[in-house]
Amino acid sequence: MSSILDQRILLLVISFSASVQSTKVLSEWKKCGDPECQKAMSRVQATTDYLGPDCRYLNFKTGEEIIVYSKLSRENENLWTGSKGKDFGYFPRDAVKIEEVLIGEEVEVLTKETDFLCLHEDKYSFE
Question: Tell me, which fold does domain 26-111 have in CATH?
């Protein structure tokens, strides 16, 4: 009986850890093309295949085009945010090359909690 209880506790701890990781704030600041981060900043092309660690990340294959909407700044400048078709998420800036800059001046703004939640079919996923 205690073995089953131990397994359930372990599963609960693993589930909680995954939930915390998927809502973890990756940076307190980001750079955008406008204060609302709605304008596309640039068009980039993937230079390698990328598979993100969780649902907040954008997965892509070499050669695919991505539109960049924001770049995390200060403590985590390696992650950019963009879209590929209907898919949206974070990806490492060193996995892409810039094809076209669409906005010349970047604005630095505070991130929001919703910036780090999973988005599935136009709905936020609270894990």
Answer: SH3 type barrels. (2.30.30)
